[in-house]
Amino acid sequence: MSRLTLVISSLLGGGAERVLTILANGWVNRGTPVTLVTLDDRAPFYALDFRVARQPLAVAGISANSLAAIWNNLRRVRVLRLAIRASRPDAVVSFGDVTNVLTLLATRGLGIPVVVSERSDPALCPIGYVFGILRRRLYPRADAVVVQSEEARRFFSAAIQARTDVIPNPVLPAGALRNQNAEGDHSRKTVIALGRLSKEKGFDLLIDAFARIAPQRPEWSLQIWGEGPDRPLLERMVEEKGLTGRIRLPGETRSPQEKLLRADLFALSSRFEGFPNALCEAMACGLPVLSVDCPSGPRQIVRDGVDGILVSPEDPNALAHGMRRLMDDAELRRRLASRAPEVAERFGLDRVLGLWEAVLERAPRRRRI
Predict the structure, then answer these.
(1) Is the dihedral of CA 303, 306, 307, 313 positive or negative?
(2) pTM higher than 0.70 for the full model?
(3) Which of 19, 163, 254, 259 is the 20 to 30 A CA-CA neighbour of 172?
């Protein structure tokens, strides 16, 4: 493949940032020259291959008012257009709804194929009135739109769906697998969760569910790794339920695999998702997983009863029942864990890169509307 320019708002910790980093590293390993443009100028959270040419634009930020927002976005489009032209790409890939709109505006008239990718379920992630109108008008002009699920694809108009492809996130095989022989030690057991401490991740539901079964299972504790605006709320919930010593919120981690390998059970409690990386990484590490069947992603990843358990979303009782079932049945945990690492074969990097490359090869042939 020829030169690629990738565009994203930032490379801070997050699912979209993690996926684009993996793809960028994968492409340069295949010999594709890659430039990665970020709207902000903060250091990457995830390890980026030294061969990826990173170009931070330092144009991100919050506008003081509507007039300032218009001016700042016009500036972002202008600076982004200059950066894309300077990188001389054969194709551009943009990640994230607002960034996609800015990228489509910045590339108008350049004659460069542009692929935009939604990184969550657009039906559940409103982007505001103005950007919503711009998305509806500009996405049909993209050479391709990539989403992570059929639910996300169905959100769009027929004109947009006609150029939309569904591509899952890549899952890297774990560097190590959890030692399931440790199941014999009942003195300490850990439920682990990973994600941004924000409403959509449903950690309030997980804390509520754990509190319902904690008194009868004193050997189990809960760790929620991540950072975000809901920290005060979640810490208050833990204190109110008298579980300060049993539920921990240690903060953000740069080594999630290390934390997963030390745990005994992974739980995903989100109200909605795109294609949850944390769930995939837990399975790749050989953890038994409990996931809510939220829109969208978990049902594509977890084969219920084979390599994990699915329960109804936004239901603390269902989460509590699922945790109780897995906590009390070591053989079930072992059986699910034994099949869980197959996720790295089903959504392996080579397969996912192949899907992306097929889209990029078709993109120039798709007629712009």
Answers:
(1) positive
(2) yes
(3) 163
